[in-house]
Each structure stands twice: as structure tokens, then as C-alpha cells.
Model the fold of this input.
Amino acid sequence: MDFYEYSEKIKEIAPAEGLAYHTTGFCLRPSVLPLVLVSSDGDGEIIRVPAQVKNSFGNEVNVVAVARSAFTDNKTVTDIILPASIERIEAGAFAGCEKLQNITIPKGVTRISAGTFSGCISLQNVYYEGSRADWERVEIAHDKHEIEFGTDVPGTPAATVPRKANWATRYSIQLWRLSA
Done:
């Protein structure tokens, strides 16, 4: 399924409930710190992570990362839609999600840590929001045996995904841009 078909499939999906968060660090004004998604207690097949959630102070703050092992061994999730606010995906965030087939990664992601998709035996499509040049700037930590591959969505400004570290050769990496 290409990104255009996929975007139609997911456009009406509401942000998921049952997700847990913690602050990104410490400061004198913890009420305004962005949050990190730390776990998923939900059992839905399609999970849309919200861009903002209310923190313990009642303030709407950005969700900026997916923590280490946040979805580890989730046995029901098939699709994960990350919001534009996400900047990094920590090690093993989706490890063992055996039914995970599709994930959308926003242009703002700067790092994808090692083992992010380890054990995701059903993963077919990684949809990336940015251009080829944007993808090349993403720091992708990897194991020695992993090789990147894939092609862009036909008709978009990007051409072919560059060869650098990625998860495994069976995944198709599709880059898309919603505006020029």
C-alpha cells in the first residue's frame, strides 16, 4: 500500500487513550516541560500518538519522544502514527511488536535508536514525512547486520532512499511530502 492509500485509511483515527508519559527532564518550571511516551496500555490495532497531552499540572505540552521499550511486546498493534512533535525514537521502542505492519515517522525525528524495530516480523512499511535530504539527516543507530533499502513514493520530489543503516531488508521505506 502506498502512502496515499494509507493516509486515507488512517485520517479519521482519533488519538489513542491508555498511553503513559513522563517529563523529559528537570527544571525550575516543570509545568511546561515536554513529555515522553513511556508505555502503551491500550490494546488497539491502530495507535495514533497525540502531539500534545495534559501534564500533571493541567497544561497542554508536546509529546517529543517515544521512550525505550514503550511498545515492547505489544501483541495487538498493527499501525502506529507518530505526530509531528516527535523528535526521537529510543532503543527498542517497538521491539517485539510482532503484528506491527505500518508506522509513520514525522519529518522532525532526528534520531532512531538501535533495535527500534527488533522482532517486528510483520513490518512492511515505514512512511517518512520528509524528503530524501531530510531522511539523510536522521541519525539511525543500528546493529552491524542491518542494511537500509527502499524506494520513495512515485511522483514525489524524493528519488531513492540512500544506503545507510536501517532495520532489515524486508521493510519498504517510503518518503513523502505533503507540500513542495
About this structure: Confidence is low (pLDDT under 50) at residues 143-172, 176-180. The chain is about 10% helix and 25% strand.
